[in-house]
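User: For a reading group we're discussing how well predicted structures match intuition. Take Leucyl aminopeptidase family protein. Before you show the prediction, I'll give you the sequence so everyone sees exactly what went in.
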Amino acid sequence: MTFIFAPADAASLPLHVVAADQFEDWVARRSTAERNWLTGCGFSAGAGELCLLPGAEGAIAGAVAGLGTARDQARGRFVLARAAARLPEGNWHLVHDLPSVALQEAALGWLLQGYRFDRYAKAAPLRARLVAPDGVDAARIEALAAGEVLTRDLINTPASDMGPQELEEAFLGLARQFDARTNVIRGDDLLAQNFPMIHAVGRASVRAPRLLDMRWGSAGPLVTLVGKGVCFDTGGLDLKPSASMGLMKKDMGGAATVLGLAQMIMALRLPLRLRVLVPAVENAVAGNAMRPQDILTSRKGLTVEINNTDAEGRLVLADALALADEEKPDLLVSMATLTGAARVAVGPDLAPYYTDDAQLAAALEAEAPAACDPVWRLPFWSPYETMIEPGIADLDNAPKGGFAGSITAALFLRRFVEASPRYVHFDIYGWQPSDAPARPKGGVGQGARALLAALPRVLDL
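Assistant: Thanks. Here is the predicted 3D structure of Leucyl aminopeptidase family protein, as structure tokens, for the group to look at:
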């Protein structure tokens, strides 16, 4: 699969892009033959509609794609990708009257429509290639698509082929691609170097836990990305029921997303210093697994009572965040498929995030729509701090009661960040439940493009 545009000088056919409320005026300017053809085909520029235009001697002269009404466009992203999926093989160029933001969305959606997870079964490729429209930054959009593809491939790969070792190999492969520096701490060395909670979560698996550390860039503000890399989550001794365990190959979606974001940053050569930390573990069941009501001492020195071994993601993130915070990065980001409560709150399509930094929140709110990457701010609600304080230890990893589960998890993580001037936590889903334009059912990145677009505003790049 390639996720690049057709060459600018390639021979191509026109794809006319028309919104439903513009269709009457547009079609009035076409030839009588085309008007009759479109009427006969029943084309009305509805969302995702496509009509091929006939040329001489039966050849295809072009096509018309519908964007639907403004309401249609507000209800779904990447509308044009529906048409791209049905176009015949060849190169196509857009004939349009789209504003800049909509044009960027159309170009990105076209590339992402070409995604196929074909590691285990063949899949028909996208046959139509797009010539990069005038006015879009083709190299940037290609970098965004490539980063998203990396994220999707990592999430979609089952745990049999994506354990901590394989995630490490993907991590090191990305580092080699961009000449980044790496360090990996594995197994019992985690204890020796004071990462006790990463070790406790992963020690029951036959696949050793590890902390992956990457650095890139030599000048500019320091941005540190921390991604939850739980390659499979059985729930530990508090074993998940089978219905809840079925999607747990995606529990490393936070790691996959920060790696996709890191690829975008490095490919675009942003003027910053980047650090990526991934605690890579498998939460398994064995005689040495952590137990309910065990008390762990974290890297930061805070003690944590384990009241549910299935709330393990915040434990591995806590040790990694404590390490990151010691360096006082200009921006510290954590991404994790952390709580079911976040899905109940906002569903699978929105990525909730938490930050105390008003400038960062404003930048995300401003940039996310144009990045076609919806996010939603939830509060670090300090009055709930008492819910994560069990009394017998500093922190409770799974407070009882069932209320505000995503907020209490975010508050737990915030306890491990003190020195960093800006911190944001994303509680993502990392999964597309059903096929949608440019987003087939399966793994998906969330929050990465919005954050990438916000970085220049926040860090004065």
